[in-house]
Each structure stands twice: as C-alpha cells, then as structure tokens.
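Lab notebook page, bench 4
Experiment: in silico fold of construct C2
Operator: M.H.
Input chain length: 248 residues
Purpose: comparison with the prior construct
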Amino acid sequence: MIMKTTIKSLLIGGSLLTATSAFAEIEAEIYTGYHSIYEFRGVDLGNDLVDTGVELSYELAEGLSLSGGAWYASWDAGDAADELDLYIGLTKTLGAVDVSVGYTYYAFPGEGDLNTEEVYLGLSHELSSGVGLSLTYYEDIDQLSGGYMEFEAAKSFTLSECIGLDLAAGAAWCDDYELNVDVDGSNMDGFNHWYITAALPIALKEDVTLTPYIKYVDAASDLDSSLVDAGADSEDHFYAGVSLAIAF
C-alpha cells in the first residue's frame, strides 16, 4: 500500500553535503533502511519493510526552496509487495511559519490499478524551546476519496558529539478517508490514531548517519488496523527499524 510520511521523517537525519553557487544551494541525500512493520497512517500493511530513497533540495531564493525525490520499498503482505513513490514540494518561509505544498505519485509495480496521486498543504513552526510543531493535510486526487490530517510535535537533543536523540508525538484525523476503513468496512471519519517515536541518530562519519528507532501507534477503536488480513480488529502497534543515510 502507500508510504507513510512518518517513516520518512524518522529515517532522514544527519548531515548533508551541500553544493553552493551564487544563485542557489543544493542538498542531496540517499538512504536505506529496514522496518519490522510497514505502518502507514495507523494501519499495519505487512511485515519486514526494506526501503531505499533519494532526496534533493534546491534553494530558489531566500526563504523559498524546492524539494523532490523517490522512495522505493518492498515488504511482506502475505505475498511480496512493492511500491515506488515520486514526490515534489515547495516550501516558503513566512515570518515564523513555513508553508509547504506538494504532490506525490504512488506507483505499485504489477498492480497498476492501485496507482494514485495525492496533494498536500503543511504548516510548521519552531518554538523558542526548540520544539517543532507541524500540521499537514493530504488529499487524494485520483483513486481514493477523502482527506487525512496529521499534527506532530518534535524535539531533538544532543547526547554526545556523535549521538543525538529525536523524540516526536502526533495524532491524526480522517475526513471520509477511503484508504483507512473501520471494522464494518466504511471509510474512516474522525480520529484515526496517535503515535510516539524515538530515534537515535549516530554520526558514523561526517556524511554518514545510522538511525535506529522505535515507534508506538495506538489506533482508534473502530479502525481496521490491517488491510492485509481483512476484517482484523484495531490493535496497538509497537515496532522498530533502522536506517542508513549518506550525503554526497
């Protein structure tokens, strides 16, 4: 099924190699990882997710940046499943708030009828305490109906010269969201799930970061937590993973 943005946010950490010209700054990173569960927006889609991706960012002007990338994953959904996501986004700093808009194309090799498209609008702000707040709304514009909104609060700590600690907590709501369904098969509407994450980015060298993490997800009582085993009741998820990010 579809990639969860919260996995990507956990995996990308560490320093980036930056190329600078008189007009723009370009940042690039490749990453790969393993995750015991493929959890997407509160739903367990299968086990043993292995993924890899690349992300680029281009500074168009002061306070305005363009980013994009590709993410490929394979996991066990009863049978082998694969997914390729292609995305692009634009972020503008307006005072103390960053405003982001973007587009994602979700492709499923061998399952062309599942391919779909999504747009999003996000707001983020960092408090004086260093706590980052973000609110993002996603709307499918192709095969799926309804919208999905997620709020997250995050804080990073320095434990040593080469080890950090990233903590985050969030909650999500749905608006007649067709991807997530309740135990009776209806589209989800209202509260969807909440989560807590902890990641430990370790700088192996200047441009290489290893990041193990754990995540706890508690779904709404009427959310069908498994689209793999149809009809499964909602249940709590506790899983872990690790990623390796390299700047170039």
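Observations: The chain has one domain: 5-247. The helical segments are 5-11.
Next step: discuss at group meeting.
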